[in-house]
Amino acid sequence: MARGRKAGALIKNITGKDFELMKGIARTGVTSHYDARNQIGLSEKRLKNLEKENYITTKNVVVNKGTNVIKTYYLNDKGKAYLKANTDIKNFYRSNERQIEHDLKLSSIYYSLDEKEKETWKNENDLISDYKTNNPNETLSTMIDATYKIDNSIVGVEVTTKNYTREQIEEKFRIADEIGCNEVIKIEA
């Protein structure tokens, strides 16, 4: 009589690609199926196994004013625990489904960077924490979405939506200058 495969863990070891996906989600809150497959190079089977083992969760989200549905990935508790034990990531970015197109754009910017630049990525939560530590008596009204370093230059990242006023955008650029950004990339979601 033939025996089936033993029941057991589908994920025995976290690969470099798995790790890259989880770090990206931690830093940007969400990763699109497109980026997981095409930027990172994960297979469908591997993504399904990461989900079955509770490292990530999958959600279908509506984008483009309700005209498209895309598959996205978020961290589960097991993925967060793995990253806490194996990285120095302190602040996990929390994606907001009400601004999913904003967060997906931020995520795609992150995945477009080279590995060295990704390792310098600071999300909005990191930047707020740093600002409050360095300026305990200052009131903070806004913060840019992220920063990363190229050589010795700090690049700010701001993804705007049609809801942003000119004054809000100007304030984002002012705070970027205050925290030491040498340039700011502004992208419309």
UniProtKB/TrEMBL annotation:
Domain of life: Bacteria
Record-given protein name: Uncharacterized protein
Species assigned in the record: Clostridium pasteurianum BC1
